[in-house]
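Students often ask why inverse folding is considered easier than folding. One informal answer: many sequences map to the same fold, so there is more than one right answer. In these notes we will look at a single instance of the problem. The structure comes first.
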């Protein structure tokens, strides 16, 4: 179990990787972001993207899953007050393999028994190019 006190400023935590499929790009888009360039190759070809791309919200969801699997599920996580500076830097396409990293920027006491960490999340594609970043905050229980 990882507690607030176990996080150190400057610490870099690898979040693992995930390969995005065409089927899930289209499924996510149908449910949550039904723009033509997320729904089909044809719609994407007619856009300035030149082909099918994942919704930025889908990309953010993939990052969240990697973060949960790598950090939150084995910690005293108590939720989050939000994210800042969310940026989609490059399109994510079918077959892209994304890898994540979380770099801790700040730790501070928040409330009784709770500490707050602030860090930069980053996803890169298989070419090492950044596709998404954001600054996230998380509340974690203090060590008993």
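Output (designed amino acids):
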């Amino acid at each position: 179990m990882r507690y607030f006190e176990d996080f150190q400023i400057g610490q870099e935590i690898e979040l693992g990787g995930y390969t995005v499929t065409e089927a899930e790009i289209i499924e996510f888009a149908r449910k949550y972001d039904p723009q033509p360039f997320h729904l089909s190759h044809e719609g994407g070809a007619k856009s300035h993207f030149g082909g099918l791309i994942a919704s930025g919200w889908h990309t953010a969801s993939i990052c969240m899953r990697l973060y949960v699997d790598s950090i939150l599920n084995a910690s005293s996580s108590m939720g989050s007050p939000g994210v800042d500076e969310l940026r989609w830097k490059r399109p994510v396409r079918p077959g892209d393999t994304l890898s994540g990293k979380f770099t801790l920027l700040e730790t501070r006491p928040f409330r009784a028994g709770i500490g707050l960490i602030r860090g930069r999340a980053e996803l890169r594609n298989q070419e090492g190019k950044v596709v998404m970043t954001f600054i996230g905050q998380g509340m974690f229980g203090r060590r008993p």
